[in-house]
Amino acid sequence: MQALMMQSQLMISSILTHAERNFPDVEMVSVTVDNPRHRQNYKTFAKRCRQLANVLSSLGAKFGDRIGTLAWNDYRHMELYYGISGSGMVCHTINPKLFPEQVSYIINHAEDKILFADVLVMPLLEALKAHLGKVEAIVVMTDSAHMPESTLPNVLCYEELLAEQSDDFDWPEFDENTASGMCYTSGTTGNPKGVVYSHRSTLLHALAGSLPDVTGASTMETSLPVVPMFHVNAWGAPYAALMVGMKLVLPGPKMADGEALTDLMNSEQVTFSSGVPTIWLALLDYLDSNNLKVPSLTRVSVGGAACPRIIIERFRRKHDCTVVQGWGMTETSPLGTIFSLKKGMEDYSEEQLTEMQLLQGRGVFGIEMCIFDNSGRALPWDGEASGALKVRGPWVAKGYYGLTDVPGDEGCPVDKNGWFDTGDVASISPDGFLKITDRTKDVIKSGGEWISSIEIENAAVNHEDISEAAVIGRYHPKWTERPLLICVLQEGKSLSSEEVLEFLKDKLHKMAIPDAVEFIDELPHTATGKINKLGLRQTFENYEFPAA
Ligand code: AMP
Q1: How far, in Å, from the CA of 515 to the mean position of ligand 1?
Q2: Distance CA 519, CA 463 (A)
């Protein structure tokens, strides 16, 4: 029997319409290059999104076209989120901090038709002038007074374009499974891969993310997402905030600036903020060294990398602020798990609480998790057994753009049983708390950005005295993880770590230069002849990088 309920499509534009109607006065505060403190309310925001939709159609953008953004967290980027997806195009957020060749690869692979770029990103695009593929226009996200000089063809001004358009626009309704957004991840081997979100996945993710035990988004809160809007939709904050009418404070390019973040938090009375561990270390250092406080801040969510104990303890002891650790990926939109207490844990001692916060949290409804051993057997949730973490759910990727989405096929991240392999190794406690213990994917995450270990290994073995090389990520107090290069030398040869680093200097990007080089007689190998990275990580388990 069929149900008798309406088949309304889950549309991103419906969030905007809801916010405009119900929360017209709620503010969105931004830092931009052209304005240190821009303010607008959701009513003005919604009006500008409609103007932007008219801009897009005047520029010839069509349903399904990919529109790239290279920008920080600010109101114009928010307008692009809603204006592009709302009119049926794909909002393709690009990380401007990636290496230039990755940026051009991504623009070309996605076949972006128009790019919207922050003023600060224009030098990067100038440098990529000959490599911008099918891009027909570049819109600089500023007003006429701040337009940079450019040698690029068809460079347009965001505010000028907006001013020419009416705010009369009816958001179209279409299939909720239509692509709404796109984000490339370099957290896999090979070239960056495009994750494609839908209106449906984005809405369901925002709904789940707003639950009280998830982020607790509410109109009574003020949120400052420090996690970039170019990385997994700032963990869904741009959608959740408008859904519940929460004030948003957007730091623009001042992401890692302790002084700017402190000022924003205090002057805008921020209650909740989210970011990667490296950001919080920078903020805590700034607060402590200037003897400052952020009294309104009650909760901070940390993800993207394991949260060090020191962040949890410093926030609690000095700032009376609770750290909420979450785990997720670009491919999981990103919410997978997040910390929240269960009944009976209210009386936990400080130490017990910290131990819980050091875990990656509990599964969010909508995400099914399972851990598997090497032979594909599901392991128990006993907090001991550790295996490959696989997930499935309505906001988990079933494939990458341009690659097969047939489960089990080469290039598809989903196995024959429909599980997405995260590349993380984990245990799960009987009450559902996830603990990430290792990683099977061969990449290193430093300060929230991926570094390819293979790229470093290939560069190292080009040295005639090095016969084999392996790179693993090891804990680093500032960057959470940094690359350690382990080399086996040709027989009878000797090299110092300084000589190896000197050799690598002009072959790798600065961020990819290992922090240390170690020499061993032999690397461990798996039965199939691959370097056994898990074994190497065990050997170097308590490795400490030499002081810089
Ligand atoms: P990305 O797709 O760039 O967001 O990276 C996702 C990956 O970051 C995950 O697969 C994990 O390897 C890592 N990650 C994310 N959150 C955490 C966390 N809380 N603890 C440990 N690793 C994490």
Answers
A1: 21
A2: 14
Name, in order, each residue with C-beta under 8 angstroms of 153's C-beta and a sequence gap of 6 or more.
Answer: none
Nearest residue (by CA) to ligand 1, atom 9, is 329
Query: Is 280 annotated as catalytic?
Result: no
pLDDT in tens, 107-160: 999 999 999 999 999 999 999 999 998 999 999 999 999 999 999 999 999 999
Strands 387-392 and 368-372: antiparallel
Give the global pTM.
0.94
What digits encode the pLDDT tens for the residues 472-525? 999 999 999 999 999 999 999 999 999 999 999 999 999 999 999 999 999 998
CATH superfamily of 12-338: ANL, N-terminal domain (3.40.50.12780)
When the candidates are 3.30.300.30, 3.40.50.300, 3.50.50.60, 3.40.30.10, the CATH number that belongs to 447-539 is 3.30.300.30
The CB of 336 under 6 Å from ligand 1? The reply is: no
CATH code given to domain 367-439? 2.30.38.10
Provide the 10 A C-beta neighbour count for residue 382. 10
CB 422 less than 6 A from any atom of ligand 1:
yes
Stretch(es) of the chain classified as CATH 3.40.50.12780? 12-338
Is 185 an active-site residue?
yes
In sequence order, which residues have a C-beta less than 8 Å from that of residue 191 and are 6 or more positions away? 105, 109
